[in-house]
Amino acid sequence: GQQLNQSPQSMFIQEGEDVSMNCTSSSIFNTWLWYKQDPGEGPVLLIALYKAGELTSNGRLTAQFGITRKDSFLNISASIPSDVGIYFCAGQLVFGQGTRLTINP
Amino acid sequence: DGGITQSPKYLFRKEGQNVTLSCEQNLNHDAMYWYRQDPGQGLRLIYYSQIVNDFQKGDIAEGYSVSREKKESFPLTVTSAQKNPTAFYLCASERAGNQPQHFGDGTRLSIL
Question: What digits encode the pLDDT tens for the residues A88-98?
Answer without folding.
Answer: 999 978 999 99
